[in-house]
Amino acid sequence: MSTSIFVLGMNHKTAALQLREKVYFSEELWGAYLQDLLSRGLAEEAVLISTCNRSELYCATDDIASVREWFCAQTTLSFNELDPVLYVYRDEAAIEHIMTVACGLDSMVLGETQILGQLKQAFSESCAAGAVNTLFYRLFQRVFAIAKEVRTATAIGACPVSVASAAVHFIKQQVGVQQKILFNDANVVLVGAGETASLLLRYLKSQLNQRITILNRNIDKAEALAEDFFAQSNTLDHLEVALEAADIVFSATGSPTPLLTKEMVLRAVQRRENKPLIFFDLAVPRDIDPEVATVAGAYLYCIDDLKIMIEQHRQGREHAADKAREMIRKESIDFFAQSESHDKVTHTIRAYRDQFNVICEGELAKARHQLRQGVDPELVLSRFAHAFMKKLLHVPSVQLRQAGAEGRFELVQFAKQLFAISDPETEAL
Fold this sequence. Notes:
Elements: E1 4-11, H1 17-20, H2 30-39, E2 45-50, E3 54-61, H3 64-73, H4 79-82, E4 87-90, H5 92-102, H6 114-128, H7 134-153, H8 163-178, E5 188-191, H9 195-204, E6 213-216, H10 219-228, E7 232-235, H11 239-245, E8 248-251, H12 262-270, E9 277-281, E10 298-302, H13 307-315, H14 318-372, H15 377-405, H16 409-418, H17 424-428
Parallel strand pairs: 5-6, 5-8, 6-7, 8-9, 9-10
Antiparallel strand pairs: 1-3, 1-4, 2-3
């Protein structure tokens, strides 16, 4: 291919949360990022995705070094800080990685399904930004198809687990260890009303006796979610008051800065008469100031605290994952081979068309000159058609005569097929 397909990024395997939250591309700005990348001429096509566990750029380019510099420049980290945790995959390996991501095999929770929806959203945003052309359209259709096939043909999708469900299970364990709160009777506050919040509510609703409180900057979204899950809702202005009555707080918003500060939590804990307050921050960048962990009576956890639990879950799914990886490997090889073939055919057609254009422009120049000299237009057109046809057919005619003299009649048959030439002798039969 004239340009290569690249994956450039970082994830939960290469970087801790403290780094990942500084390399976060807000979904609302994905289109702007991509348009900037393309307007600088750094890539021909691109898709950008940024979640709690990864920030990755998929692009078609012949200058990955410049793309890498651009990627680093969009963050608050220096190139030297960020570069060591970045990975780069090219062509077949890049295709395999994107498919692996879509199937949930590169996720913190093996086989989780949320990433496929996030990837589809990223692709949609890229299309809207004009960053997707023929190559990436074909690629991502294959990516989404293999993700569906893996779910159907393997056990990787059985009993789907997500970071949200793992977080709920983790907090239940922590409550059990402390034995100061009964999980079923806990007052739970949920900060955020997006997809992750919806997943949390799905796992929480059947396990709690108390109504969950949903707090969100956009009250309409909070109310809509509350109605679906028989919860109560309010704005973020109610956050500090809600902390006083809460036992457990889950937070999952897209805020670029912390919503819960150490001072806010300290005031709430002091009013609670030493009753413990448990926090789980699922957001990246984090919603809760890490300093909250230093407040007596406050217990703060984040998604990286799930790794031990998730690893136990992973071991039970490795056989299914191995089968899925085999399917992905074959699909990535096939797609890359087809892309190379498609590229060669496209280049051949373009070169053939360019030859036609050169011949045509040369004869047109002669015809225009003759017309300016006053030569009869009918005669000019006749000369143009004759000269153009003669030059157009010269090389193919020479090649076919030579093939016939050498007994290479398969080339003659191929020419008939290529140019859709009917055989009068065959038609007579």
